[in-house]
């Protein structure tokens, strides 16, 4: 039997904020991003990053799904717009994610739906994590 090899990539992020100013986030792979906190500021806030993580995971997963279904050669473009609605009660959280896929290519709506469903329900690590109840293992230092 052939051994399954899964490509892994180091993941993780660190956010730092002082008494004033905005949070600065760095990834373990060298990425950097400044976070905005005001509703009228251009840029990414924490919820934007959550939606961006889901959206980017979904489009990459849709491309994987198209490949699995043997239609990748007919795929032109995939976009996923993710928004949500915050819960009205405590604790503060997103109660619903609203996802709009646009899947362009030479295939019918049934294939488009199958690609979106496979991406959202089977392949995307972010959507699968959000649906579950991941454990939080925190450590606090001084």
Automatic annotation (TrEMBL):
<keyword id="KW-0067">ATP-binding</keyword>
<dbReference type="InterPro" id="IPR003718">
    <property type="entry name" value="OsmC/Ohr_fam"/>
</dbReference>
<protein>
    <submittedName>
        <fullName>ABC transporter ATP-binding protein</fullName>
    </submittedName>
</protein>
<dbReference type="Pfam" id="PF02566">
    <property type="entry name" value="OsmC"/>
</dbReference>
<keyword id="KW-0547">Nucleotide-binding</keyword>
<dbReference type="InterPro" id="IPR036102">
    <property type="entry name" value="OsmC/Ohrsf"/>
</dbReference>
<dbReference type="InterPro" id="IPR015946">
    <property type="entry name" value="KH_dom-like_a/b"/>
</dbReference>
<dbReference type="GO" id="GO:0005524">
    <property type="term" value="F:ATP binding"/>
</dbReference>
């Amino acid at each position: 039997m052939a051994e399954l090899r899964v490509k892994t990539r180091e993941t993780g992020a660190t956010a730092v904020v002082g008494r004033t100013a905005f949070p600065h986030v760095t990834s373990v792979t060298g990425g950097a991003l400044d976070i905005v906190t005001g509703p009228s500021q251009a840029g990414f806030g924490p919820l934007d990053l959550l939606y961006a993580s889901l959206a980017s995971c979904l489009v990459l997963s849709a491309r994987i799904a198209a490949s699995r279904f043997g239609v990748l050669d007919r795929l032109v473009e995939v976009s996923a717009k993710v928004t949500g609605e915050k819960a009205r009660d405590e604790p503060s959280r997103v109660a619903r994610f609203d996802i709009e896929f646009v899947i362009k290519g030479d295939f019918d709506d049934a294939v488009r739906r199958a690609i979106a469903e496979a991406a959202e329900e089977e392949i995307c690590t972010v959507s699968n994590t959000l649906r579950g109840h991941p454990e939080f293992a925190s450590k606090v230092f001084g």
